[in-house]
Structure prediction request, 127 residues.
Amino acid sequence: MKPIRELVSIASLFTSFSTLLCCALPSLLVAIGLGAAVAGVFSGLPWLNTLVKHHNFLFLVAGIVLVFNGWLLFRKRTGEVCLPAANETGETACATAHRWNFWIFGVSIGLFLIGVTVTYILPAVLF
Prediction:
């Protein structure tokens, strides 16, 4: 189960980053007057247009992956077999992996919330 937890953690980071890449970052750049830069990036990387067209689905998938990652991260782990001390601090391999997964989850949540704010909340408040 441990490899699945780590894969879901990395998947949540990449899906959250994609929400930031498709929606939040271009909006921020346009807001500070760099619309021409955004147009240049979108013409040079046409796959970004696909992300923007399907941003609702992208946010849904990212949210589902984040919820699943949170469930895997915060549920009670029983019967987990750990290797002995993996580093000089005496921390087990499971504790090190859990610590990294926790930080990756936090960054993923932050990126996702930035994307949701810029894509859905900010336009509703400003316009």
Remarks:
- Residues 2-126 form one domain.
